[in-house]
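Replying to the earlier thread about multi-chain prediction with a worked example.

Input:
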Amino acid sequence: MTSSSAKAPTFPPRLRSPLASIHASSGGDVTTEGGAEVVRSYGDPDRERAVVTGGIGVADITVRAKVDVRGDVDRALSPVDGDVVARMAGDWAVLFCPPGSVTERVASMQMAAGTSAMVTDVTHLYAGFALAGPSLPDALARLTAWDPSSLDAGTATGAPIADVRAIVVRREASVPLLEVWAAMELARYAWRSILEVVERLGGQPVGWDALREQGWR
Amino acid sequence: MHELHDAAGATFMWAGDWRRPHHYVAPEDEVDAVRNRVGLIDVSTLGKFRVRGPQAVDLLERLYPNRFSDLAVGRIRYGVMLNDEGVILDDGAVCRVSEDEFFVTVTTGNTAALERWITWWLADWQLDVQVLNVTGAFAALNLAGPRARTVMERVTDADVSAQGMPYLTCRGFDVAGVPALVLRIGFVGEMGYEIHVPSLFGESVWSAIMSAGADQGIAPFGLEAQRILRLEKQHILVGQDTDAESDPYEAGLGWMVKGDKPDFLGKRSLRDLERDGPGERLIGFTTDPAWVPPEGASVVHEGVWVGRVTSARRSAAAGATVGLAWVPAGWANEGTEFEIQFGASHTIARVTLRPFYDPDGERLRS
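Result:
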């Protein structure tokens, strides 16, 4: 602790996953995208590529931006390239976007919706993990009683994963890929639970580069 | 922020589903820091709801016995939620962020239950309003103490003076470079700010405030110190000082019941309760500092159980053991003496109806 009477910085700090220290101790190669810290890899891209194409890997994607829309969803939503819309119910959708501030987008969506919907920046509400690889069904069989076969690419639903209530999104990619979004305060528990299953199947944590090579963005 | 508290030497305890710092150093020293300098506590576990829509006021008017239609934008009102029988369910702050939007806080352990409760009633009432549980989205820090304003002025360019941001107001502005919703409230009874920031920035803001307050003697404080501080103000903890039968009249919160409002949860039951008058009352008491009665200790009259202690702590400010207890309603008069017993131990306590510390709330409002 240092003594200081100077003003604190007036610029926002970098967005950092609550798992940042775990990634650092695992050798995570961190870069900054849209003001957020992203793990590109854990030091062995070839190994991560092999895991994702031949087994199962898990990546921390918590810092992606998210927008919750309640009410007249269609009036409020205005997805752009790179967005993923998870329609959870007729009057509820969650928009997942690349890392970066969505303050202005939230404001414009709220303006478009007027009083017919509530648009909220929920970037900090959910921690997210991407499970990728052909062993995804085996991993899910160990993590949930929910049947993922009914979830088509590009769609989303609510399901319990590792006993945590989560939003799950099936992404379109060249390998089976599922995003799991759980309450931020359960991030560590969810990560450890998922990673334990992944490692039991011979998998490991992977960085965003390994996912992007499979068409994820 | 768990790692940060861990590194600061916190001893943790369970609070509902959360692990929270019980203390960092001796709780008495943490109390001293808040009363005489400035302290910082992590209150992120508070339940938080965003309530927005053309009928947001109508929803709150039905959920609470309080009145919210006259709450000005930028103002805060303490509210208590009741069930249909008029029993206290929860309490917290209701902040009017804009004409049709409120930020509502509830107690840590009740958040999930209240989310279901509100959603269930909203489905029944079919009001044009949206409610979102944003508990995990915001870290919350309570900066409190006579030097809190000095520290706050160092982490924001906003006017946080007594005139610019009086007691029971809320404002949105940057704190340590992070967009924040700041509430001028004080559960611990000192001038303070409850600072809500996006949760992933919590550590950064905590560290910035601790650094800014270093030369002011800032200290982190935990739940035990908070419990002593709130008890000195006779601020109740729902679920600890109340139970499944406690109504606002018995708990000394009858002032917030607006019986002339249109229907609200518990209204009909409260009408009967008000007519019959309370059978028992929650009162403050002081007793010899040599003994702190355990929570649940009996209040006895001629050897017969007539009530119970719900909270008790040794208070340096009061120079006594202070506490809250349920006693027969007729005893709720200043200075009435009664006996507390637990096993072979017993003491004579004295009813104190006003807060033990800063009874007029001058420090809180300063």
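Residues 65-121 of chain A form a domain with the Alpha-Beta Plaits fold (CATH 3.30.70.1400).

Feel free to reuse this layout for your own posts.
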